[in-house]
From TrEMBL:
Pfam families: Cytochrome_CBB3. Residues 1-20 form the signal peptide. It comes from Sphingomonas brevis. Keywords: Heme, Iron, Metal-binding, Signal. This is Cytochrome c. It comes from the Bacteria. InterPro entries: Cyt_c-like_dom, Cyt_c-like_dom_sf, Cytochrome_c-type_DH. Residues 60-151 form the Cytochrome c domain.
Amino acid sequence: MFRYLSASAIVVLPFAVAAAQSDMDQPRWMANMARHQRVIMHGVPAPYNVVRDTIPDTPAKLRRGAAVFDQHCASCHGWTGQGTGPAGEFLVPAPADLEWLARTPRNTADRYIYWSIAEGGKSFNSEMPAFKQSLSKRDIWSVTAYLRAGMPHASP
């Protein structure tokens, strides 16, 4: 009897936790609402308003972006960038869905993406870490180009 109860608990517990959490979670679309609102009202912060990527988007740059994304971002944002990575499963707000960035004009998206990666989400009550101290500018620009390109080298 105990064996069956233990097995039932193992099967049911994850669903119970997910159901309880779903009542507390903000919908996924709200995860970046504060950041988007800030950009709409005021633009990106002044230091990031003038940043420019001077390196052309080459296949090598996109591969580098994929490698950096896989190492630092995919655990939360998922391999496809939909915000469904295993480490981000219980984050509130949920990791951002990055797919839309590929459809955003480069002159708008570049500064936004660079700023988001560099500064993280602390000021927006998000668990996204700031990478400006741990990634080089080249790496941040490579990830930026990779996201804008629609993540062409996504891992399985």
